[in-house]
Amino acid sequence: MYATANSSSFFSTLASSILPYVARTGSVSEQPVLGYNSKDIEIIKSLVIPDTADGIEVQLALRPVTETSLDAQGWFEFHVYSIGDEGSWEEHCKGLVAARTDTAALPLAEKFSMNIVDYSKRQHPNNIFKSLQSKGINHGPSFQNLVSTHSGGNQPVASFSVADSAALMPAKFERPHLLHPITLNALLQSAYAALPANAQKSMGASIPRFIKSMFVPSTLSSTVGHRFQRFLFLDTQNSQGFDVSMATINEGETRSTPQIEINGLHINH
């Protein structure tokens, strides 16, 4: 029996393993770290984890960007690999990550109308999960954390909650995460709400493949039951896939500063 780990597992690895190191060594100022920027994230291949005692060996490689330009200062290049049965290494994910210390406005902050009254058309989250299931993409109960989706024009909004992931762990113990895989999975699920209903029905199995840029704050809430609102914008759509941008705020804090931003998430059909 096998389980497939998608992009959320890679970000979990980043959050628990390399972000503290990036914060200590990658900051180019003495200002406190407000969060983490990542960019040019390529999701190359899903990681298939065998349900055996041996599991699978995964290697995370991290190195400073060697370019001398000012734009490259503080950035680290990361790669995620696994070793196969025949001893060969396979690459699953790569990208760039850096600690953020400046307080400049996030690029998507003004792009979205962050007011729920602007979104009057409701879509039940079950419809999204049923559409994904019909394409072979299944989410168990622990990964179904979308609460509601609304739309106004081509800019929908989705609400989701933080799951009690520790309850799923042995002895209910879980190490802290900046962005838990289940939470990130809920963010990626909400991307499908950006598509018109007819496009959701006609699309094939759709998988995230690339993220142009992403920001995660160091103060992101991980409280069980905490609700976020995700505002989406459909950038492009064609027969090969679609691109969306997203900004997340704490539910109820309309017009607030985005908590998480994802710009240029590309999903292949």
Describe the fold and architecture.
By secondary structure, this protein is an alpha+beta fold. The chain folds into 2 domains: 2-100, Thiol Ester Dehydrase, Chain A; 116-268, Roll (Thiol Ester Dehydrase, Chain A), CATH 3.10.129. The protein is 17% helix and 38% strand. It has helices at 7-25, 125-134, 181-190, 197-202; strands spanning 2-5, 35-43, 47-50, 58-64, 76-83, 89-100, 121-123, 146-152, 155-161, 207-217, 227-238, 241-250, 260-268. The strands form 2 sheets. Strands 4-5-6-2-10-13-12-11-9-8-7 form an 11-stranded antiparallel beta sheet. Strand 5 and strand 6 form a beta hairpin. The protein is globular, with a radius of gyration of 18 Å. The mean pLDDT is 76.
Task: Pick out its properties.
globular; 4 helices; Thiol Ester Dehydrase, Chain A; 269 residues; alpha+beta; 17% helix; two-stranded antiparallel ribbon; eleven-stranded antiparallel beta sheet
Short description:
This protein has helices spanning about 5-25, 125-135, 180-190, 195-200, and strands at about 1-5, 35-45, 45-50, 60-65, 75-85, 90-100, 120-125, 145-150, 155-160, 205-215, 225-240, 240-250, 260-269. With about 270 residues, it is of the alpha+beta class.
